[in-house]
Specification:
Length: about 140
C-alpha cells in the first residue's frame, strides 16, 4: 500500500501535514455493525442497523448535540452463566460484541423514533425546516 509520505508533492515546510493525514488513514472506520441509510421521503430518512441476536434491552439509542449514537449495552452475567452458555454453543457464527456507531446530524434533523424488528434496528429521522428557512414568495409592488 502506498502511503502519503511516499506521494508527497514538492513542498517545503508542510511535511507534518502529510504525516497527520497518514495517521488519520491508519484509523479505519469500524464496519460493525453494518448499516444502511435510506431516504424515505423528501425530508425523511431511516438508519437501519443489522443487529441479529440483540434484544432492545441490549441496545441504547441516544441523541445529543446533533449526534445520534447507537451502542450495545453489555448486561451483567455471572461466570457460571457464561460457562453454562459456552458449553451449549457448538458453533458461534453470529457476532454479538460491543459496539458504538455514531452519526452526525444536521441542526434541523429530529429523531422521530426507533424500532427493533427481525434483527434490524430502524431509527427514523426527519428534517424539520423552520419557517424562516422555508422558501417564500416576495410580492412585487
Amino acid at each position: 500500500m502506498t502511503t502519503f509520505s511516499q506521494l508527497k508533492p514538492f513542498t517545503i515546510g508542510y511535511d507534518d501535514i502529510f504525516d497527520h493525514f497518514e495517521r488519520l488513514m491508519e484509523h479505519r472506520v469500524p464496519n460493525y455493525p453494518p448499516y444502511n441509510i435510506i431516504k424515505t421521503g423528501e425530508y425523511t430518512h431511516d438508519v437501519e442497523v443489522a443487529l441479529a441476536g440483540y434484544s432492545k434491552d441490549d441496545i441504547e439509542v441516544e441523541v445529543k448535540e446533533n449526534t445520534l449514537t447507537i451502542k450495545s449495552i453489555t448486561p451483567e452475567t455471572s461466570e457460571d452463566e457464561k460457562m453454562a452458555h459456552e458449553e451449549k454453543v457448538v458453533h458461534k457464527g453470529i457476532a454479538k460484541r460491543s459496539f458504538t456507531r455514531v452519526f452526525s446530524l444536521a441542526e434541523d434533523v429530529v429523531v422521530q423514533g426507533a424500532e427493533l424488528k427481525d434483527g434490524l434496528l430502524k431509527v427514523s429521522l426527519e428534517r424539520i425546516i423552520p419557517e424562516e428557512k422555508k422558501p417564500r414568495s416576495i410580492e412585487i409592488k
